Amino acid sequence: MSFRNGLDSLLRPEDSVLVLIDHQPYQLANLNSHDPHMVVNNSAGLAKAAKAFGVPTILTSVIAERGGLIFPQITDVFPGQEVIDRTLINTWQDPKVVDAVKATGRKQLIIAGLWTEVCVAMPVIQALGEGWDVTVVTDACGGVSTESHEVAIQRMIGAGANVMTWLAVAAEWQRDWARTEHVAELTEVLKQHLAGSGIAYLWEQQLLNTPVPRAAG
């Protein structure tokens, strides 16, 4: 097994392509590894970060007629974008999805979806076997139980996958605060989706814009 290390192993927005898989009501209804609100928040934050950095994002669902449409918190980030609807459980066996990824010319494949043990694990393991550099965004995924999610993560790591959280992905894309091109967009994402840190930032801005009262007397 080759180790993933060194500067070149970090994610770069110009080399990244994001695939969001089956963030749908049916899967969410039996999501038990995470708080469902958190998964919706994190997947939306990831989608918005990808848009901020210009990372191509492929949206795909499975039998949406029965399983429901992808969460609007995600599709609203990409208005008018086609969602590739599949019958195949394994996304990486659907030529439309694979062709869309290949058309970007990107080499760093980033995947998140529901459920971790099924619709994430299968494409990740297949893509790794085909030589792709694959990162799984674990907190924008979820399984039917904590065990199923964790076992799936272990299985994918064993196959060679890199694992990260959505905030870590955004931070690697940013890499240097002196790179100001996307800072404003990223800050908006953090304000909306980073809970305490986002609120603390707003509080900081409030304090900086609050006049200091004159001393009494």
What does the model show?
The relative contact order is 0.17. This protein is 47% helix and 13% strand. The termini are far apart. It contains 10 helices and 6 strands. Helix 2 (36-52) runs antiparallel to helix 9 (183-193) and helix 9 packs across helix 10. The model has no long low-confidence stretch (mean pLDDT 94). The chain has a 6-stranded parallel beta sheet with strand order 3-2-1-4-5-6, sandwiched between helices. It has 217 residues and is α/β, with parallel strands linked by helices. The protein has helices at 25-29, 36-52, 64-67, 72-75, 95-104, 116-129, 146-159, 166-174, 183-193, 195-208, and strands at 16-21, 57-62, 84-86, 108-113, 133-137, 162-164. The chain is globular and about 70 Å long.
Spatial strand order of the main sheet:
3-2-1-4-5-6
Shape call:
globular
Q: Strand portion, in percent?
A: 5-15%
Q: Strand tally, please?
A: 6
Number of helices: 10
Estimate percent helicity.
40-55%
Distance between the termini: 73 Å
In terms of per-residue confidence, which ranges show pLDDT below 50 for 5 or more consecutive residues? none
The major sheet is characterized as: 6 strands, parallel
Order of helices and strands: EHHEHHEHEHEHEHHH
Q: Report Rg.
A: 19 Å
> What is the residue-averaged pLDDT?
94
Class per helix and strand makeup? alpha/beta
Quick tags:
217 residues, alpha/beta
Secondary structure layout:
Layout: E1 16-21, H1 25-29, H2 36-52, E2 57-62, H3 64-67, H4 72-75, E3 84-86, H5 95-104, E4 108-113, H6 116-129, E5 133-137, H7 146-159, E6 162-164, H8 166-174, H9 183-193, H10 195-208
Parallel strand pairs: 1-2, 1-4, 2-3, 4-5, 5-6
